[in-house]
Amino acid sequence: MPPTVPAAFEAVEISYWALSPMIVLLVGAFVGVLVEAFVPRGTRHLAQVVVAVGSIVLSLAALVFMTETETGITVGGTIAVDGPTRFMQGALLVLGLLGLLVMADRLGGDTADAFTPMGAASPGSDLEAQAARRGWSTTEAFPLALFALAGMLLFPASNDLLTMFVALELLSLPLYLMSGLARRRRLLSQEAALKYFLLGAFSSGFFLFGAALLYGYAGSIGLPEIAAAASTSTGEFEGLLLPGVVLVIVGLLFKVGAVPFHSWTPDVYQGAPTPVTGFMAACTKAAAFGALLRLMYVGLETTRWEWHIGVVVIAALTMIVGSVLSVTQTDIKRLLAYSSIAHAGFIIVALISFDRTAVEGVFFYVVAYGVSTIAAFAIVNLVRERDAEATHLSQWAGLGRKHPWLSGSFALLMLAFAGIPLTSGFTAKVAAFMPALEHGGLSGVVLVVIGVLMSAITAFVYIRLIVLMFFTEPTGDVTVAAPATLSLAVIVVGVIVTIALGVFPGPLLELAEQSSIFITR
Amino acid sequence: MDNMPWLTLLMVVPLVGSIAVAALPSRSSALARPIALGVSLLTLAIGVVAAATSFTRGSDQQFQMSEQHEWIPQLGVSYSLGVDGIALSLILMALVLMPICLLAAWDDVPEGGGREKGYFALLLLLLPFMVGVFAATDVFLFYVFFEAMLIPVYFLIGMYGGERRQAAAVKFLLFSLAGGLIMLVGVIALYLQGPGGSDGFLLERLTGLEIGGNTERWLFVAFFIAFAVKAPMWPVHTWLPDAATAARPAVATLLVGVLDKVGTFGMIRFCLQLFPEASQWATPVVITLAVVSVLYGAILAIGQRDMMRLIAFTSISHFGFIVMGIFAFTSVSQAGSNLYMVNHGFATAALFLIAGMLVARRGSKRIDDYGGWQRATPVLAGSFLVAGLATLSLPGLSTFVSEFLVIAGTWSRYPVATAFAVWGVVLAAIYILLMYKRIFTGPPPVIEAVGEAVDEAVAAGDLASSDSELQYIRADIDEGRRPLRLAAPLRDLGLREKLVVAPILAILIGLGFFPQPVLDTLNPAVERTLQIVGVSDTTPSVPADAGSTSGSDH
User: Fold this and answer.
1) ipTM of the assembly?
2) Average pLDDT score, chain A
3) pTM score, two decimals?
4) Residue B73 to residue A506, Cβ atoms within 8 A
5) Which of A307, A212, A189, A193 is nearest to A253 (CA)?
């Protein structure tokens, strides 16, 4: 199919309503930049938080009040605003809001507690105070987060590979920056940012190269056209398909942290400021799975027998490596990073079952996991020893004696990660494994069996944390940062949602079911 | 009264009670124990009223008191409850044991305050799960109760247990969780075999599917492993001795007496009913494992030095009998197994709780640390003897009836296996009587006042003179055995402890002489199970010849 070049550029139809959630976020981000420049230092934090929260809420409102007539394919076929897009965008906005609130927590200081005004200044030092007086404040994290969130919203909506690439970059670049802004353990944070940037740049390169190969194969970068090429292709460029698919999928699997593209995850999760880690773990994963869903179900579904087995192997590896390595971790953030890798594996199991119920499973899983993980990282952020984050496991010993409610919440979130019934994690696992058993064939059954065995292993890890918090004598002088109003609010929401999705998952499953049909053209 | 949601009520009342206990302000935490006891008694009363008014024996419905509501229609899950005779008996057993255990646990948390509140709230929290797991008639709902129940038990062992409690709690949880997760695959795969839809997990939808072939066998294995871990059977029993030793006696009682019954109950309700063909296919292996459990548990029990561990191993032996009776597929053996589940609950409760009273007095679980207590604490010794005799199935006590039924029923189909298993009865006599002898016989312990060393010869002299006043006790019987030395005089059973022991012993003796009411409740359910499996009894009037009953034809 030779590419057709239009005689002249024509203006495309743009449904601004359909794009409004993203537009609102981008406008909010630009306003944030202006606030950064013109609002005096004393009120800047408040102004930024108000702008950020306001944009997210407005964006959510735009999404909710969008009617069916305004949705569909728009901007010349490059963006698809359909059920899956809207579900993912709604989920991302809610998760983003929760993540942002944790970031905004001042914990009794003048400005957001987690970010440093100056990479060289240790927390509480004169240098830091000086930097703050100069107005080198830390509030730029909020516009950055809004930019990233806008990219994430675009990611699952992109209906061609180039838009997907733009979204990938838009969401990644701010995250690279934010990973390096940690106020404590700054070297680790800067190292994490560099690693994340380098490996992320590689993966973007892979994605772009794969997109080029797929363009060569199909004569178009549009996902529906690539799918159609499977039946219309003359076989001339057949050899480009598999390398193209592999490279594109690698680019996306890097973002979800699937093995063997996971090596950045533990370092970045550990180094980044803890609220940013929670934001990344929940939102990046959700957005990337949204994009993977569209790529696989719209673009590559027709050719899936060519590449399916490869992803099966990746899913198995992801679950096994994530679970087994989480056993040996001694740092809570690294532990949660490996656990997130294992969870990515569970989601991939659902992802490659190719059924409507599989889409629902992925939807439910990313929401359930996202809410729990943001709350979990919010708790990690609050546990301090002499004002530094107490991330080593030994520092968590006996936390339950002194702070029963916080530790109890963390224990509940861990039980949800382990997939104990009556928590969201269990429903999510069932929703993910059911389509795999039903439509996955033999490979699906094998993956599910691996999945439950690995769940048992990760359960051991989470249970050990509970043992540590509740059944062990406290050793050090570990405290909980206070006052942490915003963080506590997010934790409460996280705990309530975790239980609610375990006991009454019906409404969300219903919504996921209604949103599970892709529009292709 | 027929429309009352009895079973939901049986779960809601203790759940509310548990939350109320947990939410008590810390200055009135002394109220935790009476509130918990009151709630458990109220639940028992509701259970009795429900059984009396809404349950008919021999009804043509499989499940009575049934309730059904949509829960997660998207996944095919319903909130569906109902009981047959087996489930009702087990629920009533749990309801009776709960106040007894609360009473036995009265002084378990001496420091009071928040810890005490938590302990009694968690104990009470077990009740809704126990009722739910036996009453669920939706496979998914059963699984939810089955797995969620682990968490309160885990905390009860891990936070309130004795030595090595963390390791025991983790081991317990991991064994159960691993078994349960394998079952989860089976549960989902079973749904996909069934008609599906918004109520596709209902037991009635999944019964009689005739899946057949390898699929059915794999499903059976997935379910059976979970139940074998729970029951527990050899070789996946290793968590039980640790958990029972580390847990408080009351928790151990509920764990072994009630929660482990979920394993054997699950085999009847799910393995047999859902996978009849695969159950018969697996019978030779299961019977073999059961016989190994019987003998292994009994032999290891003889060698134990820790009395809680010993009791745990006796339970492994008894669970072997129960499983053997279930998989012998005769109405006699199955009725025996079901009755055994109820009886074992009470007999083990008696042993654990009385052993707990011994430990509370001596502060040690080692059998060697006792001796001669019979003459110091006669009521305690007598109760222990009755409980022990119930465990070794003395005629006249309830366990005899069930053990006899299991053995008689299994003999007609698997004589060789039965011939091995009956040695379990003999070994039971050895471990119980040896334990009794070591703890209670011999010279009575000498009381040493603090700081005042009693001369040994004088003590011996005192002993002889006091003994000579007792008739029937020969003075020379204690020769060569040094009396135990204790710092404080021993108390015999107090009022609270008598209240704990009396109902259990009354039930053990009562059911020993009149098992018929319970058997009448169980039998219709047993008949139905056998009907579903499609096995008819071997005719008992024809003497079994070696060829037809070798057991190899299954």
Assistant:
1) 0.86
2) 89
3) 0.88
4) yes
5) A307
